[in-house]
Amino acid sequence: MIKVKVEFLGGLDIISNHERQHKLTLPLEEGDATMKDVITYICKDIITDQKDVPVFIEDDTVRPGILVLINDTDWELEDKEEYVVESGDLFTFTSTLHGG
Protein backbone atom coordinates (compact mmCIF):
# COMPACT_ATOMS: atom_id res chain seq x y z
CA MET A 1 0.00 0.00 0.00
CA ILE A 2 1.17 3.50 -0.86
CA LYS A 3 0.07 6.52 1.20
CA VAL A 4 0.07 9.88 -0.62
CA LYS A 5 -1.56 13.29 -0.36
CA VAL A 6 -3.53 15.05 -3.11
CA GLU A 7 -4.49 18.74 -3.18
CA PHE A 8 -6.95 20.50 -5.47
CA LEU A 9 -6.40 24.28 -5.69
CA GLY A 10 -7.54 27.23 -7.79
CA GLY A 11 -11.20 26.24 -7.62
CA LEU A 12 -10.52 22.68 -8.74
CA ASP A 13 -11.77 21.42 -5.37
CA ILE A 14 -15.26 21.68 -6.85
CA ILE A 15 -14.73 18.23 -8.42
CA SER A 16 -14.11 16.64 -5.01
CA ASN A 17 -17.06 17.93 -3.00
CA HIS A 18 -15.13 21.11 -2.13
CA GLU A 19 -12.44 19.20 -0.24
CA ARG A 20 -9.01 20.59 -1.03
CA GLN A 21 -6.84 17.96 0.61
CA HIS A 22 -7.09 14.19 0.49
CA LYS A 23 -4.99 11.49 2.08
CA LEU A 24 -5.04 8.42 -0.14
CA THR A 25 -3.98 4.85 0.39
CA LEU A 26 -3.42 3.35 -3.03
CA PRO A 27 -3.95 -0.42 -3.23
CA LEU A 28 -0.66 -0.87 -5.07
CA GLU A 29 2.88 -1.83 -4.16
CA GLU A 30 5.60 0.79 -4.02
CA GLY A 31 7.60 0.70 -7.24
CA ASP A 32 4.62 -0.52 -9.28
CA ALA A 33 2.41 2.58 -9.20
CA THR A 34 2.75 5.50 -11.57
CA MET A 35 1.14 8.93 -11.75
CA LYS A 36 -1.29 7.42 -14.27
CA ASP A 37 -2.56 5.15 -11.47
CA VAL A 38 -3.06 8.19 -9.22
CA ILE A 39 -5.04 9.95 -11.96
CA THR A 40 -7.20 6.84 -12.47
CA TYR A 41 -7.82 6.59 -8.71
CA ILE A 42 -8.82 10.26 -8.56
CA CYS A 43 -11.30 9.80 -11.41
CA LYS A 44 -12.90 6.72 -9.87
CA ASP A 45 -12.77 7.44 -6.14
CA ILE A 46 -12.37 11.18 -5.51
CA ILE A 47 -14.36 12.97 -8.19
CA THR A 48 -17.81 12.94 -6.63
CA ASP A 49 -19.85 13.42 -9.83
CA GLN A 50 -18.64 11.55 -12.90
CA LYS A 51 -19.85 14.38 -15.15
CA ASP A 52 -16.97 16.40 -13.64
CA VAL A 53 -14.31 14.02 -14.96
CA PRO A 54 -13.92 16.13 -18.17
CA VAL A 55 -13.11 19.13 -15.93
CA PHE A 56 -10.01 17.16 -14.86
CA ILE A 57 -9.19 14.80 -17.75
CA GLU A 58 -8.85 15.32 -21.49
CA ASP A 59 -7.38 12.78 -23.94
CA ASP A 60 -6.45 10.37 -21.10
CA THR A 61 -4.35 12.91 -19.20
CA VAL A 62 -4.81 15.93 -16.97
CA ARG A 63 -6.39 18.61 -19.12
CA PRO A 64 -4.48 21.69 -20.27
CA GLY A 65 -4.90 24.59 -17.86
CA ILE A 66 -4.28 22.46 -14.78
CA LEU A 67 -0.84 22.85 -13.26
CA VAL A 68 0.39 19.55 -11.81
CA LEU A 69 3.07 19.47 -9.14
CA ILE A 70 4.74 16.37 -7.74
CA ASN A 71 6.35 17.23 -4.41
CA ASP A 72 6.35 20.93 -5.43
CA THR A 73 8.06 20.20 -8.78
CA ASP A 74 6.37 20.62 -12.17
CA TRP A 75 5.38 17.14 -13.32
CA GLU A 76 6.91 17.84 -16.74
CA LEU A 77 10.30 17.51 -15.02
CA GLU A 78 9.20 14.24 -13.35
CA ASP A 79 8.10 12.22 -16.45
CA LYS A 80 4.42 13.23 -16.12
CA GLU A 81 2.18 10.12 -16.14
CA GLU A 82 5.18 7.78 -15.94
CA TYR A 83 6.42 9.14 -12.59
CA VAL A 84 6.86 6.24 -10.14
CA VAL A 85 4.84 7.00 -7.01
CA GLU A 86 6.38 6.69 -3.55
CA SER A 87 4.77 6.78 -0.12
CA GLY A 88 4.69 10.31 1.21
CA ASP A 89 4.39 11.98 -2.21
CA LEU A 90 2.31 15.14 -2.52
CA PHE A 91 0.39 15.72 -5.75
CA THR A 92 -1.01 19.22 -6.27
CA PHE A 93 -3.48 20.06 -9.04
CA THR A 94 -4.13 23.78 -9.55
CA SER A 95 -6.55 25.17 -12.10
CA THR A 96 -5.17 28.14 -13.97
CA LEU A 97 -8.48 28.67 -15.79
CA HIS A 98 -10.86 31.19 -14.31
CA GLY A 99 -14.33 32.04 -15.50
CA GLY A 100 -15.46 35.56 -15.93
**CATH class, please?**
Alpha Beta
Give the helix level as a range of percent. Answer: 10-25%
Structural class: alpha+beta
| Poorly predicted ranges | none
How many β-strand stretches? 7
Strands in their spatial order, largest beta sheet: 2-1-7-5-6
Description:
- With 100 residues, this protein is an alpha+beta fold.
- The chain has a single domain, classed as Ubiquitin-like (UB roll) (Roll), CATH 3.10.20.
- Helices cover 16% and strands 31% of the residues.
- The protein contains 2 helices and 7 strands, in the order ββααβββββ.
- The strands form 2 sheets. The protein has a 5-stranded mixed beta sheet, with no helix packed on it. Strands 3-4 form a two-stranded antiparallel ribbon.
- The radius of gyration is 13 Å and the shape is globular.
- The N and C termini lie far apart (42 Å).
Q: What topology emerges from the helices and strands here?
A:
Blueprint: E1 2-9, E2 21-26, H1 35-46, H2 53-56, E3 57-58, E4 61-62, E5 66-70, E6 73-74, E7 90-95
Parallel strand pairs: 1-7
Antiparallel strand pairs: 1-2, 3-4, 5-6, 5-7
Pathway: tRNA modification; 5-methoxycarbonylmethyl-2-thiouridine-tRNA biosynthesis
GO cellular component, one term: cytosol
Organism: Candida tenuis (strain ATCC 10573 / BCRC 21748 / CBS 615 / JCM 9827 / NBRC 10315 / NRRL Y-1498 / VKM Y-70) (Yeast)
